[in-house]
Amino acid sequence: MTPRRSRILPLLVIGLLAACARTPAASSPPSGAPASTSVASASPSSAFPLVLTDDAGREVAIEAEPDAIVSLAPSNTEIVCALDACDRLVGVTDFDDYPPEVADVDRVVTMAQVDVEAIVAAEPDLVLAAGNELTSTTIINQLTDLRLPVLVLYPESIAEVMADIELVAAAIGREDAATALVGAMEGRVEAVEAAVADLEQPRTFYEVSVFEGTIYTAGEGSFLASLIETAGGEPITGDALSTSIALEDLVAADPELILLGDATYDTSITPETVAERDGWGTMTAVADRRVVVVAEDVVITRPGPRIVDGLEALARAIHPDAVAE
Amino acid sequence: MRADVAERPIVRGPALTRAALVLGGGVVILSAALVVGIGLGSVAIAPDDVLRVLGHRLLGIGATSGVSDATETIVIDLRLPRVLGAMVVGAGLACAGTVFQAVLRNPMADPYIIGTAAGASLGATIGIVLPLLLPALAIGAGSAWLGLGLVQGLAFAGGVGTVLLVIGVARSGGRLPSVTLLLTGYAVSSLLAAGVALLMFASGRALAAIFAWLMGSLAAVGWIDLAIAAPVVLGVFLVVFARWRSLNLLLLGDGAAAHLGLDVGREKLRLTMLATLATSAVVAISGTIGFVGLVVPHLLRLAVGPDHRLLLPASSLLGAALLVVADLGARLAGGIPVGVVTAFVGAPFFLWLLRRSRRVTGMISS
After folding, report:
1. How far apart are the CA of A127 and the nearest CA of chain B, in angstroms?
2. Which domain covers residue A293, as residue numbers?
3. Interface check A221 vs B, CB under 8 A
4. Rounded to a whole number, what is the distance in Å from the CA of A46 to chain B's nearest CA?
5. Torsion of CA A160, A165, A170, A173, to 10 degrees
6. Which residue among A215, A216, B124, B301 has its CA within the 20 to 30 Å range from the CA of B116?
7. Predicted TM-score (pTM) above 0.90
8. DSSP-assigned letters across all residues of A239-265
9. Of A124, A158, A186, which residue is a domain's last?
10. Which of B38, B43, B150, B200 should one mutate to test binding to chain A, selecting the residue with the greatest count of A CBs within 10 A?
11. Cβ of A1 under 8 Å from any chain B Cβ?
12. How many angstroms away from the CA of A118 is the closest CA of chain B?
């Protein structure tokens, strides 16, 4: 009656086959490892069937080059399209807005609700989910039980975004495209790093949102915090899990620079209105008029190929004199 | 009021034809709900394809040639367990609600009132947050079973454990006074709810998963879930149904029931544990779906009267049908929480019935 029990055997068989054939299996290290160590050297289209290890540590068997891909996160969609495989997408989320050609792809996630029926009806041969409960564990298990290959992506640094691009490239047989893409990204990251290398690092507070008095920012050890660091700032972070920071703590941390990411979506958030907020006037950044609107929040917080656009936008906001447009 | 009820011969059965009519009607409504629930969904599938898949896979007749694998998967692995899950959960909640309302003699009693919901919620929340803190428990090769079972197992244990605790605190000298039970349940629930709130605050990305669980959903119900919950609900229903006399006597109040020969303390304990078992089993697979367990028993009590021989099966049937229909509504509306739909469908109807009949207060409150 249930497919659960029966899926282990085929997986084992495929795994053994893959091992015998010495198939190069790309794997994304869970954290910290630089992207260049990822295996992405397999010659195109020779690798299938293959077994990949995803960001949740799951082994995912892919039997043939996928030509019907469902993406459950906008960042995953952008990776697929940057690998020149946009035309293989058969399902995306209602948050997907880039690149423009995904506008015509069916929506299988609306209001964060994953429509499993619609995914099955699209008959995908690869599902790209998001980790850390962005795609809920329940849904991932449900799709896996239906014998759909589900690759979970959860990059926590720019290096891991690049590793994930190579992972997806291996999964869809587009390693050549990944090499060029990741090479270009690495070059741009190095340029930013070089430009800010010897500069002072201002204490930087990135405002993700303020809701009912709760201030959300980069969590401690988060992707966003590491991005601010790479862009030459010293991030003021909130709680690692809730990503919020108490106003008292923010005042005590005394930011020298405030970046308004939420101004991307809400034009009523301006340096002037921030200065008028109770308790904010004492901060060095407000007194020095270093409160800056950052209109690129989408690419700063979306861990896809455009993350380097986000990094450059941050670097420009933190060090306007050192980093050119 | 009490004397008035007591004077009536409570063991007198309803007219046989009326009972047959009510239960027959319930079966028809439930069957219709099942057919529509399996036939419709977010993906449009032709009715004859649905029938062909069901006929072939369940009864072994015909063939599924011309029907795509995807269609077969949607009908057999997604819709069928989900619709049957809605049926089991709805029946379990309505049955448990009927029992709790009789045992506690309180019109606000529902299956969640003495701590099942709070305990199950805390269990489920821990089950969702724990893998984030201990990556060894997170989804990984081979541990999908654990990832799924952890939330459900802890929810079930939380529900049953909480009620055991509440009963332990509320019990004094073999007696189980309803008011003490209610107040103890309320206090313990508040404590556990604070724990849930704390975990939600610190849960980061898992907040959405916790929130979805608390609102209740049948989206993830699979065959395994059904295989566990359905026998529990059916078993509890049969045992409780066999004790219809006790339920009818408890409506008279503890004193009168004791005078009529009922071991009130023990019987209340037994019925409470049975209802808790069913509630915890269904909540474990669906999260906390509101409204069904509170209003369906009231609705049927207004419609068919307080005799549990008829009330219990009729409530269970209608609870099952209501949740199947509500879940279909939720699916068609793009995955909104099913609890929202049950309230939208049931509340206006209940209010209408309430205005027509004033009997409800006399039936249940002391």
Report:
1. 15
2. 198-318
3. no
4. 25
5. 180
6. B301
7. no
8. -TTT-EE-HHHHHHH--SEEEEGGGGT
9. A186
10. B43
11. yes
12. 6
